[in-house]
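Continuing the batch. This is chain 6 of the set; chains 1 through 5 are on the previous pages. Same settings as before, nothing changed between runs. Recording input and output for traceability.
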Amino acid sequence: MTESASEVTANEPLHVKVRELIRQQAISGEIVDQNGRLLTEAELVERFGVSRATVRNAIGPLVESGMFDRAPRRGTFLRSGHAEQWVGNLLGFQEAVAEAGFRPGAATLDSGMTNRLDDEVREVLGERAVWQLKRVRFADDTPVAIEHAFYPPDIGLELAGRDLITIKMYEVFERELGLEIGEAVQTIGARISTAEDEIVLGLDQTSALVEMTRVTRARSGRPLELLRSVYRPDFFQFSINLRRRSY
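Output for chain 6:
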């Protein structure tokens, strides 16, 4: 039986209810064909029992966030699970995945103080011991990334008392710890998966992974975080806007 918009949370605007239904049913394959083409507006109107304007208002933000692409005269197509379009905004995983229309989640693999540091961590953070946090990250219950973050001890000990599953790290920095984020330098590459990667990410075989290292600093220049992540390439895409310099 098709779920109607009226059966979703009653206190939400109608277009928000329909948007969530479209998001869920597109991911599950109920309303897209084998090529990822979404049902037409008329078909969605009939399916959810709402107006064409409501359908348009529901789909618009999903297109803007990158979940769907619109192809003139061909239709609207589900993108292949890409969860992050990087355009110069500093977003944590929770924010990036939520903006793309997925439900973010996490599980902690390791956390706590450590003095077993490689040269990069020691040089960037300028500490002999740091607080580390290693997590597997989920999008709609699918493991899509492994993050290993390192923090100065004072920041780490503040984080240790918080919920590390749902924490929005940069919001905590700014709103709770009073840390003004200045900038982050992000380096993107690729590497072959390890046996641990394959187990944690549920990979059937050795695969190429997207690898990212990010150093986030305060406005004062103080390093706040060194983050190393690997992503399943079938899920993450980094798209960078470029401008040619004027002479």
